[in-house]
Amino acid sequence: MYRQCFYFLTAALIAATLVIGIFWPPLLWSLLLWIPLALVGWRDLRSPHNVLYNYPLIGHLRYLLEFVRPELRQYFFESETSGRPFSREQRNLINARADGSGDTSPFGTIRDVDAPGYNVSYHSIQPGKVPEEARWITIGGPQCTRPYRSSRLNISAMSFGSLSGNAVEAMNLGAKQGGFAHDTGEGAISPYHEKHGGDLIWELGTAYFGCRQKNGRFDAETFREKARSEQVKMVEIKISQGAKPSHGGLLPGAKVNREIASTRQIEAGQDCASPSSHPEFSNPRELMAFVAHLRELSDGKPVGIKLCLGKHSEFLSLCKGMIETGTLVDFIVIDGAEGGTGAAPQEFSDSLGVFIDEALPFVDNALRGAGLRDKIRLVASGKVALGYDMVVKAALGADMCNAARPFMFAVGCIQARRCHTNKCPTGVATQDPKRARAIDVPEKAERVARYHRATLDGFAAITGAMGLSHFDELTPDHIRHRSGYAPARGYGDFELPRLDEGQLLGEEIPPPWREHWQAAAVDRF
């Protein structure tokens, strides 16, 4: 009905305006409004969009409201705790700490403490005090000759290209001021990483950006030259990531400007595809050879791997590979399936991978059962935002944590979720120089350093309140998890049977572990 009426109404309105305009000429100026609207409506009558076809002109209101829907939800309808992936409560606390202002709240908790998924810990009548030196940890196993004294909290992998140059620069300057490390992401070491000299963890993805040959294979000589820089403290081989496990990447040619092309050693203006797996190795034995090669090229610096846990037997294959070859990684970063700072296929983000709180206990147990745990540092990367998040991750097996999105908040991100459009409203996740200028590098760097310090303060304070004097004393039983509307239980109750040191190498292997261990092999993943 509306569609049929539109013809008559627009024609009648324009005709009436013309007739009346003969007697009152100023009315003719309204044609500057009516004619464009009529043209839009008549175009809609042939639109492939069903709504516009049936409701020309006014149907655009539907698409306008849909466009602003995320902002309406975030600013007007979202509760303090319902936001995803980070709630308003979390974002406000991160920003308060980054600003150096108070982070106290009135009138008690607003969380539903009876709801499934709630974590809580028990305090002690006799609190402990965690010493300042416990905030640092040495990374470097027996085969590493240049170990790194690392903060317990570092900036997780985010590439230049995904983030703007100003965002990268602010994070690295903040890392320099706070004395912690900044992971480059797989987009290589950019001038913005190097400008202020903050400690770097160089991540190598499947495309070997920054040390690649023209055919996309690894370039050992270029790697040697860059990896021996004093600024590079560790090397990380990215096998998979939480946001899109077992998936390559594509940086559209429109985003590959000359600066990104130079940093990544690719052609400007051309689509840049990353393969889903590494061409330099195809099984655990070859991976360990690659680890040894990188350690030699980097002059003995720590070399580790990053992965999102998938098939349990495949991780045990890595353990068998280390045992058989005698080559060990210095650290393992476990990326939670709930993580991700950039764009990824939604179904990969939603449906693949093991979430961080389930992955950590398995990896910690597997390394212990293989007799490797005391030689390898375990890093948790996934939804680490506040001090209690670090408590949980340490209790589940992590030695240290990486955080990505909270550091984005510290440099101005508002969780607009426009990262993939190149139209980030805050200039954080864009290559538009006009938008990126919104980031005041010195001021944001101070926020990065303050947030880091305050988060470690929270980590230490809560650990002490639990009656402990060191982060290493945390165990799964210190975290009470409510899996349903029932009393909370220690995380240890949900794990696979806890393994003794080297138990996987003996005859007494518990049944759930035995099948995984038997399926693991060093000549395939």
From TrEMBL:
Q: What would be an example GO MF term here?
A: glutamate synthase activity
Q: Which GO terms describe its biological process?
A: glutamate biosynthetic process
Tell me which SUPFAM superfamilies the record gives: FMN-linked oxidoreductases
Q: Alphabetically list the UniProt keywords.
A: Membrane, Transmembrane, Transmembrane helix
Quote the InterPro entries the UniProt record gives: Aldolase_TIM, GltB, Glu_synthdom, YerD
For this UniProt entry, which segments traverse the membrane?
6-39
Limits of the Glutamate synthase domain: 151-468
The record ties this protein, via Pfam families, to: Glu_synthase
Q: Which CDD domains match?
A: GltS_FMN
Q: Domain of life of the organism in this record? A: Bacteria
- PANTHER family membership: ARCHAEAL-TYPE GLUTAMATE SYNTHASE [NADPH]
Give the record's family classification: Belongs to the glutamate synthase family.
**What's the protein called, per UniProt?**
FMN-binding glutamate synthase family protein
